[in-house]
Amino acid sequence: MKYKQGMVAPINLFFMLFISRTLVVFTVSSSLLGGSYSADLVISLCIAAVAVLLLSVPIFIMLAQGKNLLENRFFSYLYALYFFFAGAIGLSRFVLFSSSKLGRAEYPLLLAAVVICAAAYAARLGIEAISRFGSMVFFIMFGGSVLAAIFSFNDISSLNYFPLVQNGAEQIIGTAIFAITSTSEVMLLPVLAPKINGKIILPYCLCAAASLLSIVVTVLTVIGVLGSVATVAAHPLGMLYQIMKFASTERLDSLFTAYWIFAIFFKTALYLYASAQCIKTGSTQRDCIIGALGIFAATAIILKAGIITRGRTLASIIIFLLFSVALPLLYTAFSKRKNDIEKIISS
């Protein structure tokens, strides 16, 4: 494959989407899910993975026809607003966790500002720099997941998996909906597709399968070790690292925090870059500054309104379907503008 400046390889798309997707497992807890942290989470995760792939079809069709709704200024600004809040949600969860752990719970916005400033600099460097950093973060996160599974294996009790279904059908579907609406990678495709030097459908589907496998293994490890304690833990994966043993080291929760820092910095930079690509003022630096201010404002709104702890299921469903299905379908049906993306899809 011939190198093209300003573009990245399909494997980099895989890495970027994998990190964005698996980062969700760092923040999942029973308080967010509204039910028990139990083995039936696997059912919900599988339902969500299949549903997300099906709901990605409209954007695939749009791109395959050589269309991109971000060419339209109105849609472009609308997606910029979406990326503001998509980037802010994960960042808000991280700063709340970090602030409380460091005993500075009254300063979450200050920590958010530091992360956003660093992410803005990364976004200013472009997609190639972001993808290179993403490759490193991928192997760090993958290594961390393998480490957790291996060194927790002897502490797993098969009894902790029973009963296999502890939540009712309504809760299982509710958790699946949470997993679906927590997925914003499909909305990144209109931004990233023109930057990929090769096919995008295969790495996207491989990422969906790989991230599902990684999350399922992590969730089953947490349940196998913690059992019912996982339901009351604020961060079950973090607790797993606290009790995980490696040689003479009794606590590895610092590794959990480090993985999260790397991943949240990357994801914030990626979504800030996406929002900057949507703003298009003619100046990359100005776009990144506006994107940084937008994500910071969205983070302040989320923290102030307590949206994280008081999730709005109906609103999340409407927003997800609007940006992943409705708008791409409308643009595909009524737009006649073409670009070169069809060559990327079919090459």
Account of the 3D structure:
The structure is a single chain. The protein is mainly α and 347 residues long. It is built from 17 helices and no strands. It has helices spanning 10-22, 24-27, 30-33, 41-55, 57-64, 73-101, 108-125, 127-151, 169-181, 185-192, 201-226, 229-232, 236-243, 253-279, 284-305, 313-334, 341-346. The protein is globular and about 60 Å long. The termini are close together. The model is unreliable at 341-347 (pLDDT under 50).
- Tally of helical segments: 17
Unreliable parts: 341-347
- What assembly state would you assign to the polypeptide chains in this entry? single chain
Roughly what percent helix?
A: over 70%
- Characterize the main sheet: none
Q: Could you report the average pLDDT, rounded to the nearest whole number? A: 88
Round the Cα radius of gyration to an integer and report it: 20 Å
Q: How many strand segments?
A: 0
The SS-based structural class is: mainly alpha
Q: Span between N and C termini? A: 11 Å
Beta-strand level of the residues, as a percent range?
under 5%
Apparent shape: globular
Give me the strand/helix succession: HHHHHHHHHHHHHHHHH
